[in-house]
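Q: What residues go here?
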């Protein structure tokens, strides 16, 4: 629970050895506490000024802990909006823990996960969507995920929410006016029709945003590119060749892969989770292989891109068509492996259904750059000019859409009081995104996912 009277402290850099580390403190007593342990020319130094950098020593009971640089920021011109001190010391777990311990002994308390950013939100330094973006920036692991996190931090989704909320508020004002007008006069049907049109247009905008905005989970955790096909088609060889490693065991015996094996690579700035699966389509009494085959089918269903591996020597067989039915053709790339032996496959044109195949050879490494390019092109289809949103934000958009659709129906039925209430609920859902109507429990759930010190 946030207490504005508390002064909080935490190490802001990751644990472990390094050249430098930062210990940060925020709250009303930050400067006073820092003054108790910071020494210059063998004297305690407390004459801090805002946005200055001071060189000196941290001492505990007159015993030197480290030589440091202290930066000081006066409220409200700081990250949290409070008086803030940041101590840059030598990296190392022991040094930072001793400095933090000294701050706590003199009146600070340990910060909770994400509490610095939560204070920034509470003190009006950023809205909730921007605050969530801070964590997305920290978690970014590819060019695209960083770009999208920065869009969110720059206010792309916040600005849209503001526009949606303003339009919903205007519509609600007109609905409420119709309620008052209807108590004494007949309501103008043309005016009500116009309200319905505006409400429908707003609802469709919000639905489109919820449907099309990229997911922070997909961008952060990676797009799932699944390699599948019949047993012994060369799936694991393609997997290893794409990763340029020998992560998976390769054998001429069918059924070598008994579980899902994952690897990571970056394509077109996207993080890709490359997934090698057990072969499908051969009836075997082996219970473990059957389980692996079912798991492969689930991976195909959830894939963002499917690489279907075809053995150039064996060509297209009846079983290939059965497996292909599991694949979404919009996500499907046929890959003819062993192209050093044979490039054209009998029955291929019909099987590919107009989709251009990629010929690869794990022996000569032919075709793998082209395959990477094709995967990148498929992933680019997920690209959009819309700002990335979190699952929580998407759920709030869908809730707002649902409430507005109900309001539209009730206006049509003449239930203006109910419609007004539903528009209010939609506004609450939108406010849950930028934080204007968020509750304390939701804040706790959001910021507990942050690291301590951020």
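A:
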């Amino acid at each position: 629970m946030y207490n504005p009277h508390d002064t909080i402290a935490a190490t802001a850099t990751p644990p472990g050895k390094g050249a430098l580390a930062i210990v940060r403190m925020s709250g009303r007593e930050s400067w006073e506490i820092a003054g108790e342990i910071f020494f210059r020319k063998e004297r305690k130094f407390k004459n801090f000024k805002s946005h200055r950098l001071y060189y000196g020593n941290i001492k505990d009971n007159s015993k030197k802990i480290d030589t440091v640089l202290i930066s000081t920021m006066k409220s409200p011109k700081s990250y949290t909006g409070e008086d803030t001190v940041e101590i840059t010391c030598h990296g190392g777990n022991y040094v930072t823990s001793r400095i933090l311990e000294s701050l706590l002994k003199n009146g600070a308390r340990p910060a909770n996960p994400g509490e610095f950013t939560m204070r920034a939100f509470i003190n009006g330094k950023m809205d909730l969507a921007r605050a969530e973006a801070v964590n997305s920036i920290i978690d970014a692991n590819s060019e695209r995920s960083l770009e999208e996190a920065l869009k969110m931090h720059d206010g792309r989704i916040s600005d849209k929410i503001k526009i949606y909320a303003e339009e919903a508020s205007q519509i609600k004002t007109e609905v409420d006016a119709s309620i008052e007008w209807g108590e004494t006069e007949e309501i103008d049907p043309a005016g009500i029709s116009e309200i319905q049109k505006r409400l429908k247009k707003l609802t469709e905008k919000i639905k489109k945003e919820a449907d099309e905005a990229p997911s922070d989970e997909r961008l952060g955790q990676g797009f799932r590119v699944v390699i599948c096909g019949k047993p012994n088609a060369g799936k694991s060889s393609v997997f290893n060749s794409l990763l340029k490693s020998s992560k998976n065991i390769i054998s001429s015996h069918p059924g070598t892969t008994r579980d899902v094996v994952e690897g990571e690579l970056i394509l077109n700035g996207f993080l890709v989770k490359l997934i090698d699966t057990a072969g499908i389509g051969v009836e075997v009494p082996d219970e473990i292989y059957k389980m692996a085959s079912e798991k492969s089918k689930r991976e195909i269903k959830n894939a963002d891109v499917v690489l279907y591996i075809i053995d150039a020597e064996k060509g297209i067989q009846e079983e290939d068509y059965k497996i292909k039915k599991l694949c979404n053709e919009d996500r499907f790339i046929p890959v003819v492996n062993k192209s050093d032996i044979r490039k054209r496959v009998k029955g291929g044109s019909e099987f590919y259904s107009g989709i251009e195949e990629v010929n690869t050879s794990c022996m000569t490494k032919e075709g793998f750059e082209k395959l990477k390019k094709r995967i990148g092109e498929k992933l680019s289809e997920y690209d959009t000019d819309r700002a990335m949103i979190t699952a929580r934000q998407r759920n709030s958009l869908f809730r707002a859409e649902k409430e507005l659709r109900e309001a539209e129906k009730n206006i049509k039925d003449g239930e203006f009081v109910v419609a007004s209430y539903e528009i209010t609920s939609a506004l609450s859902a939108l406010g849950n995104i930028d934080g204007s109507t968020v509750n304390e429990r939701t804040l706790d759930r959001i910021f507990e996912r942050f690291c301590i010190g951020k």
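A: Context that may help when evaluating the design: The chain has three domains: 8-127, 144-214+388-435, 219-380. Residues 248-253 have pLDDT under 50 and may be disordered.
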